[in-house]
Design a protein that fits this description.
With 210 residues, the protein is mainly α. Helices cover 38% and strands 2% of the residues. The protein has a domain of 141 residues. The longest helix has 18 residues.
Amino acid sequence: MDIDSPHSDSDNPPTAGAAAAAVGGVGGASSSSSSSAAASPSRYESQKRRDWNTFVQYLANHRPAALTLAQCGGAHVLEFLRYLDQFGKTKVHVGSCPFFGHPNPPAPCPCPLRQAWGSLDALVGRLRAAYEENGGGRPENNPFAARAVRLYLREVRQHQEKARGISYEKKKRKKQPLLPPPPMQRTATDHHPPPPPPPASAAASSSSSP
C-alpha cells in the first residue's frame, strides 16, 4: 500500500512499531513494574511520552535534513500525521467505491486504510501538551496548535464522515426533568397550633343552657 507521505524510500522514519504506538495506543502495552500504582504514571501520561518520543525520532530522521524542535512548524506536523496513515486500521472508502457512505459494507473492498479522525485528534492533543511540557516554547508558537493542523483535522473528519457514512458528533445527554421537592413530613416533635375558638353565637347558647 502506498504511503501518504512526502518522504522518499531513502528516508529512515521511526520504526513501524513505534509509529503505530503513537496513535491510539496501538502496540503500546506498558511493561510491568514493581512500583506501586500511585507512583507509576497514568495511562494518558505513558501514551503521551511514547507519542512524544516517536515524534522527536521522526524529526531526527527527517529528510533531506534532520529538524530540531525549534525548526518544527505546522507543515512538519501535517507530514507526520500523513506518515502515520500507513499504520491506520480504519477503512475509508473512495468516491468511486460502491460502498462510499455505507456505514456497514456487506463485502470487502480495496479502499485504503487510514488513521481514524478520533485517533488523530487525540494524538494532536497529547503532542500539543507534550510540546509545552518539554520546553518547546510559548503556547502561541506550538506547531500542534497551528491553524493548518486544525483545518487538516477538520477536513479529515468531514471526509471520513461522508466516506464511512457515520457521524462523529457526540451524543448530547438528555437533561433530567427537575422534580419538585418532596413534601415535608411532620414528626412527633412538631407543635400543632391550638384549635380556633368557637363562634360567639355558640358560646352564648352554651352559657344560657341550664
